[in-house]
Amino acid sequence: MSNILKAFVNIVNNYQVNINIVTSGNNRANNMGEGLESYISDAFSDNFNETDLKTKKENFRNTFSYKGTKNRIPDLILKNSDAIEIKKTEVLGDLQLNSSHPKAKLYSIQNITDECRACENENWDEKDIIYAMGHIPKRSVQLKSIWFVYGTCYAADKEVYKDVEVEIKSSLNKSLLSIETTGKELGKVKSIDSLNLTYLRIRGMWVIKHPSKLFADLYQQTNESFSMVAIIPINKYNNLPREDREIIEQKDDISISDENISNPNNSAQEMKVKLLIFKV
Question: Its Gene Ontology molecular function terms (predicted)?
Fold first, then answer.
């Protein structure tokens, strides 16, 4: 069964071969995202050096139980394991999450597709989620950096964000305008013109800092041609297969350390994590 350690090692072993094929085609924005998703899925399914298309598809199906759509989280789910959400960026700035607030975990009761909810042989209630963030600078086709960060290290509990949405809807209901707040969006302003032809949709746009800013005390990207960082809760790391931990801990080109980060639910408290760094 694949996991973040196997993907990390696969990228370390193959970055020189694969790093320049992340984007292709004429539509840079679309191809950058699709290329990055293929790159990440190849890392987890050990497909970097596989040339036979049939075998590559079999490896993919043996690794993942779900491949998502463009408008719904997550992008991928490892079989009986973690969900993966892939984000691409041209600058190391804020990340646009659109209408989906940051996720510490993926829950089956959230706004996901029925196919996602039923992707495993057994019912599931929650999954750990990995945010995989790739940086491809403007006017470049080269992947500059990848950050793998577990949601519990990056986002607060779902109630924190839901409470904000509830408060906004409550405020909208007090408006003198005719606003409907019963749907999935924040609201809909109705009866705007005399013929009631027009309505205004009020949608949230969630934005989160790039982990390179949030965790700048742990690692700062400088002039490296490529760098990769993974931040894994210590209990999660210790529960990963011993064989995979031994393989990654024996690699001299990967820096591994125990670190403390701020708890996303209470910044006065610390959270123990394992920090993995590879750079060239």
Answer: DNA binding; type II site-specific deoxyribonuclease activity
Phi, psi angle pair for 178, to nearest 5°: -85, 100
DSSP code, position 129: E
pLDDT in tens, 196-215: 899 999 988 999 999 999 99
Tokens of 231: 């931040």
User: With contact defined as beta carbons under 8 Å apart, do 102 and 208 qualify?
Assistant: yes
- Stated as kind and residue range, the H or E segment containing 244 is helix 242-249
Strand 126-135 to strand 83-89: parallel, antiparallel, or no bridges (unpaired)? parallel
Nearest Cα neighbor of 186 from 203, 198, 211, 207 is 203
Q: Residue 265 is which amino acid? A: N
CA distance 204 to 268: 28
Residues 186, 204 contacting (CB under 8 angstroms): yes
This model's pTM is above 0.85: yes
What the block records as the tokens of 51 is 């040339």
Q: How far apart are CA 6 and CA 121, in angstroms?
A: 23
Spatial contact of 43 and 11, defined as CB atoms under 8 Å apart = yes
SS3 216: coil
Structure-token pair, residue 263 = 């708890």
Query: Above 70 in pLDDT, residue 17?
Result: no
Query: Helix and strand tally (H, E) in the chain?
Result: 9, 14
Please report which helix (H) or strand (E) contains residue 158, including its range: helix 158-173
